[in-house]
Amino acid sequence: MAENATAYVSLEPCNHYGRTPPCTEALIRAKITRVVVGMVDPNPIVASKGVEKLRDSGIDVTVGVEEELCKKLNEAYIHRMLTGKPFVALRYSLSVNGRLSYQLGEGAKESGGYYSQLLQEYDGIIYSSTSISEKFVPTSQEAHLKQTLQIIIARSPNSPVQLPDFITDSASQVIIFADKDIVIDPEVSQQGIETVILGNLRLDAILDHCARRGLCSVLIDLQGNFGDLKELVEEGVDSGLLQKVVMEILPFWDEGKETLTLKKLEKRVLRLEKLHPKTSGQNVVVCGYF
């Protein structure tokens, strides 16, 4: 069916055995006559070898078509290949008067909503154990898609880690990173949920563990009571571990007495690049890069 056809790929086809057989072999067997490649693979195992294999097999190969667009599409993979760490994005919501909000905008969690779709872009989502409740379910509602790995941060010794059934039912999709003083509910251990105890709960160590598990990207979600995440976010900014920001602006003025803040970061001027706004229902979502 593909004989004499042209294949368009955003990333150079691989020419080595890994989790799957070489993509180049599949293209050659299919008798493709031309391949248009968006960008060369930054992985040194692959870089240009896939293109060379296709050309040696008599296939016409064009490289660099819509290269910048392809780099944007593959940004997490590129970052992982160049740094060895997952690509990290920070998500939060703001009222129109600039206050951090506990909540998401209306419709954001529903199928087709920006938050539901955003979760599909990341291999893992980092959130605080103190935000866990029946109202907070960080799962995508998109149909027939794999759920992201849930990475729970437990730092407060006054809040023993207890997980509701909707989380423990998917134990293989959950990791708990806990401070050495944290009390873990015995039922959590019995569920087979992976728990990593760290003497110093730092973002750098968490990302190293995620990289060993093969994650290319993680989303830090400041939703609900995110107190356990403040130090991780500040470390991420100070150490250059954050690459992207996803900010949701909610259409209301927040006059609540309790104010959520990242005090250390409020004293700094952080300039974002490549800002891209879009609407999501009555809300505005702005993406930008450090």
TrEMBL record:
SUPFAM superfamilies: Cytidine deaminase-like (SSF53927), Dihydrofolate reductase-like (SSF53597). GO terms for molecular function: catalytic activity. It comes from the Eukaryota. Residues 1-62 form the CMP/dCMP-type deaminase domain. This is CMP/dCMP-type deaminase domain-containing protein. The lineage of its organism: Eukaryota, Viridiplantae, Streptophyta, Embryophyta, Tracheophyta.
